[in-house]
């Protein structure tokens, strides 16, 4: 009997790495239920792809897109089990939901959603024939953990809880913009970024930007170039 070669992992690299956030219930309740290795691999990689996306209604992924994922191809290996069969098993278990949709060229597309409240609502709408064209997926944004590690440094357990709470509280676009503003001012710390977010929430982000633009204009008019401007 030929001994199977053990493929090893080189370890997590130092420095900046992308982060993916999944509910704890995935590991405490779902993973212990899965008794098939391929199903486990496909489940985790599918949930990873969905977690990396932002959508107006609910994120979804197709089997074709999953097949194009290098990690998914490596996970499936050279076995005889097709991806569609493994996805069907994940649907039967209740991890994923699937909805059929006829696309412009007349072909049928199968969209896979996480079995979450948003996913169930989106699938129900598709099955009732509701046009979800405006719910097409938006380009994925880095989550708050990735933004922190990319712009500030390594995370601590205590700070991770603060970041998780902030991600649930503030819009993703605000979080990205707050990080950019902090970096542009060379204030690379979470306390400063969180203060920006709280101020936007309290005073109104658009109102603050309007006042800042007005202040900059007034400073320009009355400052060192004031005598060059007709007013």
Structure description:
The protein folds into 2 domains: 25-135, Arc Repressor Mutant, subunit A (Orthogonal Bundle); 144-222, Arc Repressor Mutant, subunit A (Orthogonal Bundle). It is 54% helix and 7% strand. It has helices at 25-33, 37-51, 63-67, 70-76, 83-93, 117-127, 144-151, 157-169, 172-184, 190-203, 205-222; strands at 61-62, 96-102, 108-114. It has a 3-stranded antiparallel sheet with strand order 1-3-2, sandwiched between helices. α2 packs antiparallel against α4, α7 runs parallel beside α9 and α10 (190-203) crosses α11 (205-222).
Q: In DSSP terms, counting alpha (H) and pi (I) runs of 4 or more, how many helices? A: 11
Proportion of residues in β-strands: 5-15%
> Could you name the ranges where pLDDT drops below 50 across 5 or more consecutive residues?
216-222, 224-231
Computed structural class? mainly alpha
Gyration radius over CA: 23 Å
Main sheet: strand order: 1-3-2
The percentage helix is 40-55%
CATH class of the largest domain: Mainly Alpha
Quick rundown:
Helix content is 54%, strand content 7%.
Topology of this structure?
Layout: H1 25-33, H2 37-51, E1 61-62, H3 63-67, H4 70-76, H5 83-93, E2 96-102, E3 108-114, H6 117-127, H7 144-151, H8 157-169, H9 172-184, H10 190-203, H11 205-222
Antiparallel strand pairs: 1-3, 2-3
Helix pairs in contact: 2-4, 2-5, 7-9, 9-10, 10-11
């Amino acid at each position: 009997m030929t001994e199977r070669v053990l493929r090893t992992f080189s370890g997590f690299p130092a420095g900046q790495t992308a982060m993916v956030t999944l509910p704890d219930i995935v590991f405490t309740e779902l993973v212990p239920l899965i008794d098939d290795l391929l199903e486990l691999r496909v489940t985790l990689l599918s949930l990873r792809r969905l977690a990396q996306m932002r959508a107006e209604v609910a994120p979804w992924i197709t089997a074709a897109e999953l097949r194009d994922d290098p990690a998914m191809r490596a996970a499936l290996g050279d076995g005889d089990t097709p991806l569609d069969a493994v996805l069907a098993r994940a649907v039967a278990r209740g991890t994923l939901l699937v909805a059929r949709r006829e696309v412009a060229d007349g072909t049928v597309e199968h969209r896979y959603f996480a079995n979450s409240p948003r996913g169930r609502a989106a699938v129900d709408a598709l099955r009732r024939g509701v046009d979800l064209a405006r719910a097409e997926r938006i380009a994925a944004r880095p989550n708050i953990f990735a933004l922190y590690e990319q712009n500030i440094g390594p995370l601590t357990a205590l700070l991770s809880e603060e970041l998780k709470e902030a991600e649930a509280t503030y819009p993703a676009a605000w979080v990205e913009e707050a990080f950019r503003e902090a970096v542009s001012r060379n204030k690379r710390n979470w306390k400063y970024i969180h203060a920006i977010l709280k101020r936007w929430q309290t005073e109104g982000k658009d109102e603050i930007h309007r006042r800042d633009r007005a202040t900059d204009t007034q400073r320009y008019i009355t400052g060192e170039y004031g005598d060059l401007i007709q007013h």
